[in-house]
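the two lines:
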Amino acid sequence: NAGVTQTPKFRVLKTGQSMTLLCAQDMNHEYMYWYRQDPGMGLRLIHYSVGEGTTAKGEVPDGYNVSRLKKQNFLLGLESAAPSQTSVYFCASSSSGQSNEKLFFGSGTQLSVL
Amino acid sequence: AQKVTQAQTEISVVEKEDVTLDCVYETRDTTYYLFWYKQPPSGELVFLIRRNSFDEQNEISGRYSWNFQKSTSSFNFTITASQVVDSAVYFCALKRRSEKLVFGKGTKLTVNP
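prediction for all of em together
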């Protein structure tokens, strides 16, 4: 049971470098999300998507871009990484955006920007 | 605005002790959902429970129980007879109809043998 798969699991970048995090889900979910988790801050929503071809900004979208070209994939891009983007990134999905929907999470990507 | 407060940043207990994790929320809506998620050391968040605002019935699932009180805007989580495997970060979260899920900052629970 794959569920939500994130790649890579770890990455170290230098300031100014770019990278893309990949999230894939095999549950045919419509909604996908990218969160970042920082010590003492909980999880904060970066961007989300309500379906293939759609994206929307969350609470902390600056410095990130996303794309949802295929329903099962949700990509998070950092065009010019900054030390402030050092964090653990989680992808999640849900079958819909209904209030009672639970989220399914990936195992996270630990990103360090030096 | 909606807000979730988990005032306990870290809790440490000895195995077999009971422990309660507090969650206080703020919302003006009458319809909303509350959730608890567990994040074990492996990192992946796992859904534990959801409760809608119209259902104040407490729930018990094995050693886990949840106490929802609208009068105090609280949705507390109790682990009875804690075990080492309960060591994790626990997140409380709130969702209103038209808004995205909002998480509290989490409570790190350490259960020592």
